[in-house]
Amino acid sequence: MLYIHFTCPPLPHLIVGGISLFRRGDLHERRVLDHTFDLIFVFSGALYLEEDGRKYTIEPGQYLILTPGKLHKGYKACTSDTTFSWVHFYTTGDFFYSENPITHVDYKMNKTKYYKKDVFYISLPQYGRIDDSLHEMLKNYMDSISQVKIDKYHNEKLFYSSTKSQIEYQQLFLKILTIFCDLREHEKEKELADEIFDYFSLHYQDAFDLNRLAAQYSFHPAHIIRSVKKKYGLSPLQLLLSIRVQKAMKLLEEERRTVGEIASLVGFADAAYFCKQFKKITSLTPLQYRNQQRQHEWFN
Fold it and tell me: For the chain, what percent of residues have pLDDT higher than 90?
């Protein structure tokens, strides 16, 4: 996966948006755009594009960002009628590419930041898929900024006058970029949440320390909380407690350990707090759960 990183400020800005209607047998033109990015999102059919020798198939719900200074062309004609929206955009700032996303770290506000914005990055995956739930919103945004229609059915290119202020066009463009940025952020959050789950599964006996966890993964504590809650519906502490209770349930199926011993083994310093959390999660006390398991064994 190639990522495109824009150094901000300044923000990238919209040049023009449009929609293209290709017939079966139509082929995307061969060209090099010297300073312009071309974001393409396919709504129906399929588009077959090649950039610098790398071939992409863009199907409904997928997108591709063509980059400046690289030869791109259609490597295969459309096999069915194809509709796609496109956005040409530009930046006067720096941009670069990498195989990995950039991890954004929030820094605490202080008085030296009153008059100058810290550098940050907009990172866009060059190629990917947009969730179905966002298609209608994305289509509305792209239709709203569209001022060009390329219609292969009637062999014409139509141009439309501005219906909005330039600020409104740029606002809509940034909303479009936000959808693609959030795609990467959601994936990052899922990955981060999974890493934290795996960490808790191995270190469930350790004391919970959100600041230490944030430092370990180089994220703000608020981002840690948001990522875990989005994936599991629980706060990091609730997730850890749930994992501890799951571990305790297995130990309770054995006879040789007391509830107090099990509480200590799974990371609870206080047996009463362990019992409270166990009942909150399972609706049973530890002893009720043990007795339930024993009865289940008798009947089986």
Answer: 65
